[in-house]
Design goal:
The complex is a heterodimer of chains A (328) and B (246). Chain A is 36% helix and 27% strand. By secondary structure, chain A is an alpha/beta fold. Chain A folds into 2 domains: 2-220, P-loop containing nucleotide triphosphate hydrolases (Rossmann fold, 3-Layer(aba) Sandwich), CATH 3.40.50; 224-293, Alpha-Beta Plaits (2-Layer Sandwich), CATH 3.30.70. In chain A, helix 3 packs across helix 4 (106-119) and helix 3 (91-101) packs parallel to helix 5. Chain A is elongated. Chain B is an all-alpha fold. Chain B has one domain (2-245). Chain B has helices at residues 2-17, 19-44, 53-57, 62-76, 81-86, 88-92, 99-118, 123-131, 136-162, 167-183, 194-203, 205-214, 219-241. The longest helix of chain B has 27 residues, at 136-162. Chain B starts with a helix and ends in a 5-residue tail after the last helix. In chain B, 39% of the residues are buried. The model of chain B has no long low-confidence stretch (mean pLDDT 89). Classes of the chains: A alpha/beta (328), B mainly alpha (246). Chain A binds chain B through residues 11-12, 45, 48-52, 70-71, 73-74, 76, 78, 80, 82, 84-89, 93, 97-98, 100-103, 145, and chain B through 2-3, 6-7, 9-10, 13-14, 17-18, 86-98, 243-246.
């Protein structure tokens, strides 16, 4: 549905998006994740046809954004980051206007609007002036306007930003429901949200894709080896050697400045917690702490996006992001 | 075409929903009504020179121009700058409409509202016709001039509005562009060079309106308004598009 190849956008000297390539297939829900300023909004603006890419190739719903921009825009429904609406209009008027703008006929617009009003739970505010609505309702109006013309791709930029927890849950439910029917690309800097909603995650940082895959894939491939943290009272001298000999343990690191704390690197499937406990019991060591650390998506995200540029050995291999060289 | 009409429709509604539009309408009517009353009572004085009231009404008083110079920035300042400020431009320009359609729709809305503002002044010739003879030719020509010059001024305002996010800046910019546009022609008498005089006279809007008021429809004037208007609307579309290559 979306096919981006070597997408690049520069603002003057500054490169906001730097040759990213990805595809979104029909019916997929893809989340774009990245810290603020990573290039998410710029990428989405290119997909929606608001900004043309400086370089690269982009088709949406099979239509090229360069050669056929108006038709390509018809394929896309877009909810911009700061849902901007005409505050002097009533909800129903605004939806009618958007329907017309998308080229729906007058006869078609009517039923389409009432159907959308229902699916976005806007019945109670249908005749209210937009300026008087709460942020949550405005977000829903924006979403309703974006899906009015049944676009083949729905693009949502930070759909839950600025909402209270209750509204966030409502919008998420709405998004999940839409995701069953539609191809959906959404951006967020909130991890659990993406984890919750998306089939696939694209993590971008500084205009580049740093990782891509399903939330589970990302977790598994990053976690690699299981890490155990062990703290033993009194830091017995032979502890590192004993721990290293336990089955499944690959390496033992004594944490500097923290006597008695060890970091055990174990093979992926191994869970030597019981062995550690038994070894300690045999020698009358007191186990103060025994924790298995698992990298959450959050850790991955933080690690991926806080690295200095150029100082990320191995990351590319771990995630094998399908990042081809940009044909120049 | 549908895109143009949709944008125009929304913009017209916005005009009628905004209090500013009513303030402008009231001001225009008060000033025009006052000027008309003054002209009629002046001409009723037996010692006054002979003249047709509407000939004087169209363009021969400073008020006419003051109002026009004020109305154009106020009607147009919101058109594109507000869309950019609030961010609705993003929704608009990701809909399947082109910059040209958006700009044209907005311009036509401003022009229609401008015509609506002048509509009540039709009461003046109607009143005169009730009490005496009216030569309708010059009246029609006068309104043609009002439309032509208004169209030009509004297109300048549209361009200014496409260049900034701030309505205030747009209004001031419009004013700054209209002042030379209006006054260049008046400098005509300061020059003795024939070519310069000719160019300035071609641009002399005051003189144009004088002629329209007398019933002289010089198509050169209309071509000037129309071509300049098209140019400014075109430039506005390009300014709106400029986000793409910045």
């Amino acid at each position: 549905m979306i096919d981006a190849q070597g997408l690049t956008r520069r603002y003057g000297e500054f490169t906001a998006v730097d040759g990213i390539s990805f595809t979104v297939d029909e019916g997929e829900i893809v989340g774009m994740l990245g810290p603020n300023g990573a290039g998410k909004t710029t990428t989405l603006r290119m997909i929606t046809g608001f900004l043309p890419p400086t370089d690269g190739h982009l088709t949406v719903g099979g239509r090229d954004l360069f050669s056929d921009p108006v038709a390509a825009r018809r394929e896309v429904g877009y909810l911009p980051e700061n849902v901007a609406l005409y505050t002097e209009m009533r909800v129903s008027e605004y939806l009618r206007y958007r329907a017309m703008l998308e080229g729906l006929s007058r006869a078609k617009a009517g039923p389409r609007i009432s159907e959308t009003v229902k699916s976005c739970f806007l019945e109670e505010v249908e005749h209210q002036i937009i300026g008087t609505l709460s942020k949550g309702f405005r977000q829903r109006v924006g979403l309703a306007a974006a899906i009015l013309h049944h676009p083949s791709v729905l693009v949502l930029d930070e759909p839950t930003v600025g909402l209270d927890p209750k509204q966030i849950i409502a919008i998420r439910e709405l998004i999940r429901e839409l995701g069953h029917k539609q191809t959906l690309l959404l951006s967020s800097h909130i991890l659990p949200e993406v984890e919750l909603l998306c089939d696939r995650v694209i993590i971008i940082d500084r205009g580049r894709i740093v990782a891509e895959g399903s939330p589970q894939d990302l977790q598994e491939s990053w976690v690699g080896n299981t890490i155990l943290r062990v703290e033993l009272k009194g830091a017995p001298a032979e502890a590192p050697d004993v721990l290293r000999d336990l089955p499944g343990v690959v390496a033992v690191e004594t944490l500097a400045g923290d006597p008695g704390c060890y970091r055990l690197e174990c093979t992926k499937e191994a869970d030597p917690r019981q062995a550690v406990f038994e070894a300690a019991k045999q020698r009358d060591w007191v186990v103060l702490e025994l924790v298995r650390e698992q990298a959450s998506l959050e850790d991955i995200f933080v690690r991926l996006t806080t690295q200095e540029p150029g100082a990320s050995p191995g990351l590319g291999e771990v995630f094998s992001a399908p990042q081809e060289e940009v044909p120049s | 075409m549908k895109g143009v009409l949709t944008v125009m429709g929304r913009e017209l509604r916005a005009f009628f929903f905004s209090p500013l539009a009513y303030i402008v309408a009231a001001l225009l009517l008060v000033v025009n009504g006052l000027v008309f009353w003054l002209i009629v009572s002046y001409l009723n004085d037996p010692r006054a020179q002979f003249g047709a009231p509407l000939e004087l009404f169209f363009g021969q008083t400073l008020y006419f121009w003051l109002v026009l110079l004020f109305v154009a920035p106020v009607l147009t300042m919101r058109l594109l700058s507000e869309e950019r400020r609030s961010g609705t431009i993003e929704v608009l320009m990701t809909a399947p409409v082109t910059e040209g359609q958006v700009v044209t729709g907005k311009y036509l809305a401003a022009l229609l509202f401008y015509c609506f503002l002048w509509l009540p002044t039709l009461a003046y010739p109607a009143l005169l016709a009730h009490y005496g003879e009216v030569d309708w030719g010059p009246v029609v020509a006068g309104y043609l001039g009002v439309l032509g010059i208004g169209a030009l001024f509004l297109s300048v305002g549209l361009l200014a509005s496409s260049l900034t996010k701030s309505q205030l800046v747009a209004a001031i910019l419009t004013f700054a562009m209209l002042i030379p546009l209006f006054t260049f022609g008046l400098l005509e008498n300061l020059f003795s060079d024939a070519p310069i005089r000719e160019v300035l006279s071609y641009l002399n809007l005051w003189q144009h309106m004088e002629e329209f008021g007398k019933g002289i429809v010089d198509t050169r004037h209309l071509v000037y308004y129309l071509s300049a208007t098209v140019l400014f609307v075109f430039l506005s579309a390009k300014a709106l598009e400029s986000r793409k290559w910045r």
